[in-house]
Write a structure and sequence with these properties.
The complex is a heterodimer of chains A (431) and B (712). Chain A has 431 residues and is of the alpha+beta class. Chain A is built from 14 helices and twelve strands. Chain A has two domains: 9-125 and 268-429, Peroxisomal Thiolase, Chain A, domain 1; 132-162. In chain A, the strands form two sheets. In chain A, strands 1, 2, 3, 4, 5, 8, 9, 10, 11 and 12 form a ten-stranded mixed β-sheet that branches. Chain A has a two-stranded antiparallel sheet with strand order 6-7.
Amino acid sequence: MGMGNGRRVAIVAGCRTPFAKAGTDFGEVGAIDLAKAAVLELLHRTEVDPALVEQVVFGQVIQSVLAPNIAREVSLLPQFPRTVAAHTVNRACSSSCQAVAEAHDQIALGLADVVIAGGAESLSDVPVLHSRRLSALLVEAARAKSLHARLGTLARARPRDLVPVTPAIAEPSTGMTMGESAEKMAKENAITRDAQDRLALRSHKLAAQGAADGRLAAEIAPVFVAPRFEPVTSDNGIRADADLGQMAKLRPAFDRRHGTVTAGNSSPLTDGAAAVLLMSDTAARACGSAPLAYVRSYAVAAVDPAGQLLMGPAYAVPKALDRAGIAWRDLGVVEMHEAFAAQVLSNVQALESRAWAAEHLGRGEPVGEVDWDVVNVMGGSIAIGHPFGATGARLTTTAVNEMRRRGAEFGLVSVCAQGGMGFAMVLEAAR
Amino acid sequence: MSAPAFRREAEGGVAVVTLDLPGEPLNKFTRAVRDEFAALVRELEGEDAVEAVVLVSGKQDSFVAGADIEEFVALRTADEATRLSRQGQTLLDRVAAFPKPFIVAIHGACMGGGLELALACHYRIASDHPKTQLALPEVRLGLIPGAGGCNRLPRVVGLRAALGMILSGNHVGASKALSMGLVDELVPPPILREAAVRAARGLAAGEVGRRTSRRSLSSLVLDGTAPGRALVLWRARAAAVKQTGGHYPAPLAALDAVRCGLAHGLGRGHAREAELFGNLAVTDVSRRLVEIFFASAALKKDPGVAAPVPEPIAVKRLGVLGSGFMGSGIAATAAIKAGVPVRMRDTDLSRVGKGLRAVADIVGEGVRRRSLSPLDAARCQALVSGCADYSGFRTADMVIEAVFEDLGLKQAVLRELEAVAKPECVFASNTSTISVGRIAEASRRPEAVLGMHFFSPVRRMPLLEVVASDRTAPRAIVTAVEFGRRLGKTVVVVRDRPGFFVNRLLVPYLNEAGRLLTEGVPVEAIDGAMTDWGFPVGPITLLDEIGLDVAAGASAVMSEAYGARMAPAADIAALVAGGRLGRKSGRGFLRYRRGRKAGVDQTAYRALGVTPRSAPPAATLAERMAFALLNEAARALEEGVVRSPRDGDIAAVFGIGFPPFRGGPFRAIDAAGPGRVAAILDKLTRNYGDRFAPAGIIAGLARRGGRFHPTV
C-alpha cells in the first residue's frame, strides 16, 4: 500500500554508536564526531559505494551554534564526494524518525535513490549561552567606533549579566520540564510507582539480554575516542543487575513528596548517534543490497502541551496504522521510545482503552491490545539511553533487524516528542 | 632557430613579458632562454614608452624550475663553469639595474635560477597558492647558486634566513616567503597578473614603495651588524663542517660566497661565487649527486615492467591488515599523501585503537612540522577507520598486509582476505624476509600477489621495494609502483629473492661489523669508520635501531638461502638470548636513557666474551664492511634482483643511506674501477675468507675493462 507515488523505499541497514550517559565515555567527543562514526561504520558494513549516496538527512535537537547543520558535516566525511547535499531536521525527540521520513519522501517522490538518515546528540556538549543583556552589550561594543567607547560599553556589564544560561529541557509554552509533565501524566492516569519501576526493570533486563546474546551488540559501531583511541563498544547505561528493591528506594526527582517519577524509571541524558541507509527498491537491488524492510507509512500528531504533553504517540499510531491499511494486531514488532515509564504506560493505557478511543479518536473500538512479547524486546531508552536526536534511528534499526529475526510482517516505531508531538512509522518486511 | 620562449604584450605603458618555453611542461633557464632574455632586456631598455616591466610564467602552476641541469653535466672544466656563472650574473645585474621598475609575478615552483632572477627584480609579487614554493636547491646537487643568489638573497631576507635556504635547499611556501620578506606581496592566483601590472604602474608613478619589513632586535644585531654576521657565519660553518663530515664541499663554499659578498660588496661577491661555482661544478661529488638526481627522476617515470605496460588499477580504497607500527604507518601515509580512505584491520578492537592512535601521532607530527594544517590533519584522521572483522574490505582496490613476519600467518590472512575481497584486488605483503612466492602459494590468484617492502618509519623513509614473484602479473606490479609513488616513495621493482635488494646488501655489511666486534674492535671505531666513509650512522648503531633480534632473524634467513657468506657473527645471538635487543629494549651495544643514546654499553663486550683492543686503521675497517656490501650488490644485480645498476644505486642511497656523494654501490665500483675492486676483494678473500670472493660480474668487468654505468 504505502504512500507516495508507488516507489517502495527500502531500509537496507542501520547502525549506531554505543549510547553513553552524558559526561562519561563520550564526554569529549561531540555530536558531529559521533554522527560521523555511525555513518562511516554504516558505509563500511554495507560496503555501499559512498558516491551513490545522494543526500544525508540528520536529526539533532540541541544544535551547535558553530556547526548548526550537522548533516552537512557528516556528508563532508572524506569518504563521500563533496557533492552530497545534506540537511538537518529538528522534531525534538523524534528528529531522526523525521530524518528517516524525509529520506523516505525524497526516495518515494523519485527525487533520490540513496539517502542516509540518522541523528546525533551530545548532552555532554550543549551550548552554554550568555544572558540577553550581555549579548546586547557585546554587539554594541563590536560596533563602537573607538576603543574608549568600546570599553565604556563593556563596563556597563554587571556580574549578573555574566551568569551563563544553559538550555533547559522545558516547554517554552508552559514552562514545565519533561519530568514534571511525566509526573503530571502519572498522576492523571493513575500510573503507579511500582508499574513504572517494573517497566524500567524490564527495560534493563531485556537490554542486558540483547547485549549479551549479540543482537544489540550487532547494531553498535565501535567508537575510538581520541586522544587514546580506546574502543567504546557498548552502551554504558544498561544495568544487568537492576532490581526492584533498589529502584523502589530512589527518591522521586520532580515531586519530592507525592511523586513517582525517578531517575530509575526515566531515560538518562545520553550521548550517541545512529544512522540508517535507505534506498529505492530498484537501487537496492541494482547494487546488491538486500532490503531488510520497507517503510509502509508514517504519521505525526500533536497535542496541547498544557494537557498531557507526552501523549502524542497515542494519536500518531492509529493514524499511521490507518495509512498502512493494517491494524494493531498485525504488528509483530513494536519499538516504542521510553522517555519515562509513566509516559509509555499512559500511552499503552490509551491505546488499549475503548473510552479513550471514543473520546479522543471518535472510534468505537480501542486501537489495540498491547502484546508485551513484541514491545521493546531488547529493552528501551530507559536502559539503553536517549540521545534525543539519535533515538528514532536506533528504534528503526532495531525494529527492522528484529522483524527479520522473528519473521514479522509488520513493525511499528513510535516516539513521543517535546511540544506535545508524537511520531509513528509502520515498517513492512522485505520478502 | 626554435620558437621563442618569451612573448610581449603591452598593458598601457607596462610591458608584460611571459616566459613559456615551447614544447616543455616547465620553464627552465636553458642557454637559449638566457640569450633570448638578454636580447629582450636590451630591447626593453631602449624603449622610452615602456614605463615598467612585468615578468610572468605561461606555465600552469609553475614559474621557473631552475637551470638546465643537462648543461652542468656537459661542463668539462672549472673555467667553463665559472664563465657560465658569470654570464648569468651579468644578465641578472642588468635586470637589477634596469632603469624602470622590473616586477616579477610568481605562481608555482620558483627554483634555483628562477629565484635568482626573481631576486634581481625590483618587486616580487606571488600567488598565495600552496603550489607557490621558492627554493635555492643547488647544494643538493653539490653546487651553489651561481647567478648572484649567494649575494642577493642575504640582502633581501637577511643573513640568517638566507643561510637557512641556501644551506638546506628547503622550499619556502608563500606565506613564509612574505613574512621573511622574500616576496613583497601575496595575492590570489586569478588576479596575480592584474595585481602585478597595478604594482608596476604604482612603482612607475612612485606611488608604491617597496615594503619595508620590520626587523626584530635579534635580526638587527645578528643580520645587521658586522660582528653579528661574523658570529652567524662562524656558527653556520661549524654546523656545516659537522653535518657534511668533510664529504660535501658545497655548503662551505656557499658560506664562503655569502661572506665575501657581505664583506666586500656585490662585485667581489659575484666573482667569488662564480669561481666557487666553477670549482664545484666539476667535482666528483656534484657529478654523483647530479647522477642521482637524474636517476631518481628517470625512476619516477619508470612503470616498473617492460613494454607492453598495462594500465594500473586506480587505488581508490586501501585495506591494511595489521595495525601495528608498520600497518599504522602505511595507513597514515596513504591518508596523508594519497588521500585515500583506508580500512585497517587487526584481531581485536583495542589493537585497532592503538593503530588509530599511531596514525594520530603521525598526523599530529605533520601538524607540528607544519606540513599539514589542523584541518588537513582532521581529514587525514577521518580517512582511516578500523575494524576487527573484514567489513569494508570488499570495496578495497588494494590490500597491504603488515602482520607479524610469519609465513603461516601471512598466508592465513591472505586466504581470509580472498574470501571477501573483489577479484581484481591487489594483495601486497609488507614482507621483509619471507618470499612473496611462498606467501602466494596460499592464494587463488597468485598473479595479484606481490610484496611492498616499506622501511621503518614508513612516513619518513623514502624507499619502497615492490617485490614481484615469478607469478605476479605486470598489472599488479604497475599498480603497486603507481600507488607507491602516490605515497611519495621512490619505488624500485625487485625480484623475489631472499632479502630482496636492500636487506641483501645490509646483512653482509652488518655481519661484517658484527665480526669486527667479536674480533675485539671497539664499537666507536667500527661506527666511526663507516660514518667517515659517509654513512649517516654507523652499522652498530644501526643494528641497535633495527633490533638485534630482527637482525639475527634476517641473517638466519639469509644464511639459509645463500650459505656461509651470509652467516652471522655467532655471538650476537647470545646477546639476543640475554634480552639485549637494541634500542627498543633500552639496551643493545649502546645504552639508552629516556630514548636517547647514552654511550657504548661496556657490558656488551663482556656479554660477547671479548676485550676491546686498539682498533686497526679506519680505512681497513671500512674496506671490509663496504666491500662486503658492494660485492653483494653486484651479486644481486647478477641474479636480476634489481633490474639495472641505476635501480640498485638509488635503492642503496634511499634505502640504507649509502653515501650519496659516492652515487650508490655501482657508481662507487665504477669510480674505483672494477679491476681495482676485484683486486681488493681478492686480497680480502685471502685475508678473511671466501665470503669476499668477487662476484662474477665484477670479475667479468675487471677482465674486460668495463663498467656498470656507461661513461657519460
